[in-house]
Write a structure and sequence with these properties.
Layout lengths: L4 H23 L11 H14 L1 H4 L6 E7 L6 E7 L7 E8 L3 H12 L6 E14 L2 E2 H13 L3 E10 L8 E10 L1
Helix pairs in contact: 1-2
Amino acid sequence: MKDSVPKKISTMIYDLAFEENKELLKLTENGMGLKKMPELAFAYECGKAIFRNRKTILNSSDYTWERELVIEKGLGPSDLVFLSEDSHLPHYVIEFKLDDTWHKYKADIKKLKEIKDENCVNIFCSFKHVFKYGNTDQSIGFIEILKTEFGNEAVMIQDELFKTKISNKPKDHFFYTSWLVK
């Protein structure tokens, strides 16, 4: 999956979040904007970055970019979608969760699992505020919960942990995972 389109999408999303964190740590004392950033604002920034580089990331410039698009009736809107009129090219459907409740993570995972269009490549990206200190690493527990929820219907694309400052605790991190949902 090293040079696959889902991996390139995932890497662009991680890089954008990492740079946003770095910039906000310089500007403020309380750090990561993803903790306070509305999910759709982050989806918009990711969409803009991917679309700007679509020929490299999506391997084609023959894509349009949509936010909050309903892919299939009854499923609700998807956060970010890249569509192609070329039937040989897949559509990319991306759902984001930014440090939300577990119920909302599950709802987006379920939505992606239920997309029946075989021309859609479904990607789930999550950011979770975790603490890491000594032998305690909350990211391990979080990833196990996601693996259980996905079962054999998803393959992890990427997982990254980066330092931030959200509280007064020195061990704040954001944990990023991305998943290719079958």
